[in-house]
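Ticket #4471: structure output looks truncated?

Reporter: J.K.
Steps to reproduce: submitted the chain below (133 residues) through the standard prediction queue, then opened the result file.
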Amino acid sequence: MSENLDLVRSMFGAWERGDFSDTDWADPRIEFVFADGPSPETVSGVAAMSESWRDFLRNWQGVRAEVEQFVELDGDRVLVLFRQHGRGRTSGLEVAQTAPRAANLFHLREGRVTRAVLFLNGDRALADLGLAG
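Returned output as attached by the reporter:
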């Protein structure tokens, strides 16, 4: 197992418990991308990433991730397929009803994530990467 895969696994360990507070894994100039969903956007820097994620979480309660698969694509990229759990604060809908399988694509360099792309639709991530089949 590579150091990059170890780092991503450790990040998801906290996220599976619903703890998204640690950002030590992020490069200070990280590019954070919501690739799809209701508000696609790209922001740069840890502070902007944290604010973007907080904005997303405001709509949900009890959000946590359940990993299905870690895929080391190459020496610099790790794809994680996962299910999100939580309930809409207003609607009461389970997040899995709106996004059954999600994906994160992490670009890593020198032990830090330099780019993180969140796909609320994991099938889109697979298609974009040419892995759909």
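Triage note (M.O.): checked the attachment and the full token line is present. The chain has four helices and six strands.
Status: closed, working as intended.
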